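Example record

The entry below shows one chain as it appears in the dataset: sequence first, then structure tokens.
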Amino acid sequence: MMSQSGTAASRSLFSLAEFRATWLAELISYFGDQLARVALAILVFDRTNSAALTGMTYALTYVPSVVGALTLSHIADKRPRRGVIMLMDGSRAAVVGVMTIPGVPLPYLCLLVSGMSFLGGPYKAAQLALLREILTAEQYPVGMSIRQVTTQAAQIGGFACGGLISAALTPQVCLAFNSATFAASFTLYLYGV
């Protein structure tokens, strides 16, 4: 249970407009990512009936992110963080938008998934660096805690909703929603940070 001082510290962070914008942007884009992960797994399994290809596609939503972080995070250090974040959000919205087209061949879909994931590396580096600029040294640990709880909740909610939406509608609806979350995150950074 959170102490009164911890609760007060959390409330004080949400009184900061830039923190609210970055928190909400991460919440919605992370939720959308989880929807897309489920949708892609279902889409690949429906097309191939192969658990191995489904697992490999799911891995493509994570592994290139590490490569992107290792190869492109220096960009987040040399460029304005907000600009890097907005460029990555806009690019990922476009990439996922292409993935929503019905009948995209599986090799291209895998390439697009890898590209989307790859761009997540520099996005995360810039976002964490920007959070460090927005918050004071005393606020930063509380902000990171809030961020951790938020991403875990978004992950659980995204997985559950992704399965339900894919079953009730189509996996492309989840992908379209994910593209919209990147566009919403772009907008939050444009006007809120």
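Notes for this example: The chain has a mean pLDDT of 86. The chain has one domain: 17-192.
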